[in-house]
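Consider this pair:
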Amino acid sequence: MKKTVKQVSVGITALVISTSILSTSAPALAAEYAAINESAFIASFETDGSKEVAEYLMESGAFSISEANEIMESYVESEARLVESAETTSDDTIYVEIDSMFYSTTNLASSPHYVAVVNSNMNRTFRGSLDLLFNSNYSYYDDYCTTYPTTASYVTKLLPIYENNDLALTYKVEGDTTLSGSQVMCLLKVGVGTNTLSENTLNASISMVDTSNVGGFSKFTYAVGDIDHNGILDADDVYYLSSFLLARDLEVSYAGEYEAIVRYAFAAAMDVNVDGIVDAFDLSLLKRYIQEETE
């Protein structure tokens, strides 16, 4: 069923001005009037999905009505198009098929880039190191490293060894504990070289060697906020992040063999400020990155 949307612009400025005047003379009345304004703002959207996002933005306390309206403009723009092409099941899972390769060969996002190390070998112990090799013409280690998102006390990351533009990360398991399941073990900030013109080039310039001879490790690169991983920060990324914040499940597929890392890349890219939490502040920073990219 085709869904229609209605953008919000008329009346917002007048409401904000009125609220400002009231807040000077009668704070209690101003608060009540502001609540009415927020309710009117939420109700001004036609689809249930857009109303839910607008309500989330207001309840988060992180946005003024004007700031929320800017985010909603992006959400509405993509909702009108993506809802038509995406398949939504009865449990609100959104299935999106992207007819392109996972690493764009033509675009490079302007937001900060990271390389993530993934452990995909289930139920095993390991000890050793992972060597990340950077082609200095296209990428370099940006002197930043953090464990993410595992908090397991039995996994210890020793200090990274950086030499001749390469990096060695040494891991060890304390005792006889085994790791169960797949997880992103580490994020490293990556600098982008002047010769790098696409996400594919950046990813190809970084190689990883597992010197522990255990196997089961892989890596992927991504730009924060580029949730659909196409090398462009735009309204679609706002739609995906907003949907995630409302607890909607997203299942995304790409052309090529990347199924094993897609869900990790999606989750990592949503944490725009890289604080280990996906929340309204990530949405705010994403909007700022989009504005900077289009200027």
Summary: The two ends are 36 Å apart (CA to CA). The mean pLDDT is 75. Residues 65-85 form the longest helix (21 residues).
